[in-house]
Amino acid sequence: MQSKQSIHGSWGSRWVFILAATGSAVGLGNIWKFPYITGENGGGAFVLVYLFCILLVGIPIMMGEILVGRRARQSPINAMRETAAEAGLNQNWSLVGWIGVLAGYIIFSFYSVVAGWVMHYIAGMGTGQFVDIGSEEAGQRFNELLASPEQMLMWHTLFVLMVVGVVAGGVNKGLERATKIMMPALFLLLLVLLGYSVNSGSFGEGWDFLFSFNPEALTWDSVLVALGHAFFTLSLGMGAIMAYGSYMGKKDSIGMTVLTIGALDTLVALVAGLAIFPVVFANQMDPGAGPGLMFITLPVAFGQMPGGQVFGFLFFLLVGVAAWTSAISLLEPATAWIVERFGLKRLPAAGLLGVVVWLMGIASLLSFNYWEDIKLMGMGIFDFLDFITANIMLPLSGLMIALYSGWMLHQKITRDELALKSNLAYNSWLLAIRFIAPVAVLIIFVVNLYDKLA
Ligand code: PFF
Ligand code: NA
């Protein structure tokens, strides 16, 4: 098993893997979701809890996922099965792979709808449609988009095609090539936008909002949101990182790589917050505006600022690129599995999956208009899917992966695969993956369930 190669190919270098995994991690979660949930949960204290979740739960679990993927060099479903076989464990552990692939699928379906909105805004900004509009009008525009299944369907379709196009190219000619072009572009755009925000927004106010500690705003609910978001933002619990890990070089250090990916993802989220909140405050708008923060508040702000036209366009371009590289990683695990299981070529495998996920996305986008009245647990279809994936499926499958890699796999396997330089590092990982991560996930789960039922 040691010198095994993946039939799908492998990354050209350690940095390609880091960039690809960062491309998966950095997405709508960082630029759209993180700022608005931070706004809704009161700022500083939430950010602190979130950082703890990343460090103590996210990073160790990411190491667990990658080690399983690289050990077996197969799609998550088969990787779980094969490592279980190697360790003499029950074959049903492959179910964890299934939950992951399913969660990834569901996420793709609504992720693509939001990515579609982003593309609509790229076009709108690029053609000057937001110059000097007021917040009422901006809200109205956004609602018009949501009320139009045709518009949303068009963008959703285009986005699915863009993702299938890359995934169909395979690990090297598709994923790796896209990574090498898009990730440098992403970092460049982010820097430009940060510079703009520092110079033209209320930077100090934005900074204080993100980093001043105000514990009153913190509730159990916000802790659950922070934990769920730590999984979502690092692409954990759905096989994406496990699949990418299966194409990783045998000699590359998992620990250093994961720390880099986690740091970059966190950095982008914070920089996105620092790019957005100053602009929000400079225009006396509400940081707690919710999901509309990026689509309503920002266009108004940009529309009133000098150079806002160009920077607004660049901003949404950045979001679009980030969403694209993330969605690629949502489709990859299932595609790899179909190729392994049925011996299909990449194109038909990715195409087939693309059609199914496209259809599922339609249910999400209809929940904003024709199917508005359909409620599941009091939520519309879109919100419901977001809720069950981010707050239930991801923590659950993350918990299973923690238990699996911490308790079930022999330490000989994990030690060998992680190849950490010091015992201290390995023991810290073991402590986090065996106790801290599972206990944190469990407590928050139980408390929240109790909250919901009581
Ligand atoms: N990590 C991505 C984000 O923060 O937007 C979302 C995501 C991508 C989640 C891929 C899961 C995944 F497999
Ligand atoms: Na992210």
TrEMBL record:
<feature type="transmembrane region" description="Helical">
    <location>
        <begin position="351"/>
        <end position="372"/>
    </location>
</feature>
<keyword id="KW-1133">Transmembrane helix</keyword>
<dbReference type="GO" id="GO:0016020">
    <property type="term" value="C:membrane"/>
</dbReference>
<feature type="transmembrane region" description="Helical">
    <location>
        <begin position="12"/>
        <end position="32"/>
    </location>
</feature>
<dbReference type="Pfam" id="PF00209">
    <property type="entry name" value="SNF"/>
</dbReference>
<feature type="transmembrane region" description="Helical">
    <location>
        <begin position="44"/>
        <end position="68"/>
    </location>
</feature>
<dbReference type="GO" id="GO:0015293">
    <property type="term" value="F:symporter activity"/>
</dbReference>
<protein>
    <recommendedName>
        <fullName>Transporter</fullName>
    </recommendedName>
</protein>
<keyword id="KW-0813">Transport</keyword>
<feature type="transmembrane region" description="Helical">
    <location>
        <begin position="384"/>
        <end position="409"/>
    </location>
</feature>
<feature type="transmembrane region" description="Helical">
    <location>
        <begin position="310"/>
        <end position="331"/>
    </location>
</feature>
<feature type="transmembrane region" description="Helical">
    <location>
        <begin position="223"/>
        <end position="244"/>
    </location>
</feature>
<feature type="transmembrane region" description="Helical">
    <location>
        <begin position="95"/>
        <end position="119"/>
    </location>
</feature>
<dbReference type="InterPro" id="IPR000175">
    <property type="entry name" value="Na/ntran_symport"/>
</dbReference>
<dbReference type="InterPro" id="IPR047218">
    <property type="entry name" value="YocR/YhdH-like"/>
</dbReference>
<feature type="transmembrane region" description="Helical">
    <location>
        <begin position="183"/>
        <end position="203"/>
    </location>
</feature>
<feature type="transmembrane region" description="Helical">
    <location>
        <begin position="153"/>
        <end position="171"/>
    </location>
</feature>
<comment type="similarity">
    <text>Belongs to the sodium:neurotransmitter symporter (SNF) (TC 2.A.22) family.</text>
</comment>
<keyword id="KW-0769">Symport</keyword>
<keyword id="KW-0472">Membrane</keyword>
<keyword id="KW-0812">Transmembrane</keyword>
<feature type="transmembrane region" description="Helical">
    <location>
        <begin position="429"/>
        <end position="450"/>
    </location>
</feature>
<dbReference type="InterPro" id="IPR037272">
    <property type="entry name" value="SNS_sf"/>
</dbReference>
<feature type="transmembrane region" description="Helical">
    <location>
        <begin position="256"/>
        <end position="281"/>
    </location>
</feature>
